[in-house]
Structure prediction request, 241 residues.
Amino acid sequence: MGKTRAVEITAQDLFSVKAAIEGGADRVELCTALGTAGLTPSIGLIEGAVELASKNGLKGFVDVLVRPREGDFVYDLDEVETAIRDIRLAVAAGVDGVVIGALRTDGSIDCVAMSRMMEAAGDTPVVFHRAFDVLADQFVALEELIEMGVVRILTSGAAPKTGDGISRLQELVKRANGRVEIMAGGGVQITEIRQLFDIGVDAVHLSAKRAITGGPNRPGEKASYFQADVGLVRAAVESTC
Prediction:
């Protein structure tokens, strides 16, 4: 039996969750503020996504990003407490996975913060997000995260875009050796998906988004935002075959 080839779609509204379902995606990562690399979504979005997944008979479909602010991943005690509160709410709402990450100023994993957040998640699987790509030593961190019990790591291979991190991703897959899933993400293009699976990643993570321009949100400014496009989701899923 070959490795599972999962497609995960970022979703910051229910429209995008529905597009991911219709397009055949395996999973969504709920977030908000995609323009700032994602922040914790509202409890309303979380509950709505869990309800949609349940109505469609989908298991393991809803992961939620818990990131208390934009910027770096070095958090003070108040920010960690905020994340813990959000994790507990998300778990209570029925999510299938929690996506977190916390670093120290020296570029290593903040094991204390991670331990507290993972404890808040309880039995809900934990994913380490792209804070992994700014670690001082990804290979040391890989072993630490495996020891902690993280189930999946999201990474571009320490490159600005996944397509430029192929060799590092391949090495991470080799070193992980099935002990933790390696999910490729960060500017993934649909045309790159087959190559990413061919080097052995377990999943790909992409937005499959289109820009929406609506009415003004301030005087003299037109608002724009991103939503997942069902056609792009379907193309991503079909490219795994």
About this structure: Helices lie at 14-23, 43-55, 77-93, 111-121, 138-148, 166-176, 193-198, 230-238. The beta strands are 6-11, 27-30, 62-65, 97-100, 126-128, 152-155, 181-185, 203-206, 209-218, 221-228. The mean pLDDT is 96.
